[in-house]
Amino acid sequence: xxxxxxxxxxxxxxxxxxxxxxxxxxxxxxxxxxxxxxxxxxxxxxxxxxxxxxxxxxxxxxxxxxxxxxxxxxxxxxxxxxxxxxxxxxxxxxxxxxxxxxxxxxxxxxxxxxxxxxxxxxxxxxxxxxxxxxxxxxxxxxxxxxxxxxxxxxxxxxxxxxxxxxxxxxxxxxxxxxxxxxxxxxxxxxxxxxxxxxxxxxxxxxxxxxxxxxxxxxxxxxxxxxxxxxxxxxxxxxxxxxxxxxxxxxxxxxxxxxxxxxxxxxxxxxxxxxxxxxxxxxxxxxxxxxxxxxxxxxxxxxxxxxxxxxxxxxxxxxxxxxxxxxxxxxxxxxxxxxxxxxxxxxxxxxx
Length: 351
Fold this sequence. Notes:
Order of helices and strands: HEEEEHEHEHEHEHHEEHEHEEHHHEHH
Helix content: 25-40%
Radius of gyration: 22 Å
CATH topology of the largest domain: Rossmann fold
Distance between the termini: 43 Å
CATH class of the largest domain: Alpha Beta
Largest sheet: 6 strands, mixed
CATH architecture of the largest domain: 3-Layer(aba) Sandwich
Number of domains: 2
Structural class: alpha/beta
Shape: globular
Number of strands: 14
């Protein structure tokens, strides 16, 4: 992502906010896990949370939260706070840009929808400033050092602890819980999600030992796989499926949780019982499957591939949050059951 440049009005306002922030804040100690409440604070504040881009000191329980990136707004809502601003999702969102599971949760609880902000190709710092946030959460995002510095002038900003877009889902939830002073509830959310996925595994013993690969294609000639640790893979292993062991043998593309294997090596997927992927529409699927090397992948040939065209579903199933998991499972589980049944019923020669 290119360096961001702040509009003149936002630059001036951010400078004033930075001066106020520096005048009013003092650093709190950081524990080995990256966050610790200062001694004697009955409500757990102030708290300092470290990230790869810098530390954020949150002086008191936040009330006006802005989220950037994927998944954070879901946890904020689950922990009892309605964000004042969330990043627009122009790919997987609804016609207004809201992710449907977030919109449904807020409307069901009678809460107002937050303002939508943009973060790509540039973070709208001026728009965020107008929301007067007291906390900006971006633990699963691609914000740059320049973004972080500008945002931190507006409000304490929590970025990612490792690489951009690489924060494990459970760590993301715990970071948000620390920032909101709700660590116990955040830990309970992590347990609940694991229990929810484990319940699917318990109810579907046929999933055990069933191997899968999660593919991405994009365009003809391209073939890659997602690795364990990527949420769209982890949600499936949480339900009892097993990543095809050959996937872990592939070199990981730097800065990602995926591997580009190339269509010419599609035969390494011969032992995958299932494959998962998505396409923009049936025409794209037809173009990809017209490639003989792709069409000969056993799971594609026998019909034990699980495919989606629904952008909202694809987005939700690539996240593990307290809102996406229940939203996805109602549709996902029956489709996986059908694909596993295809494998079970296939003639031995085709396996």
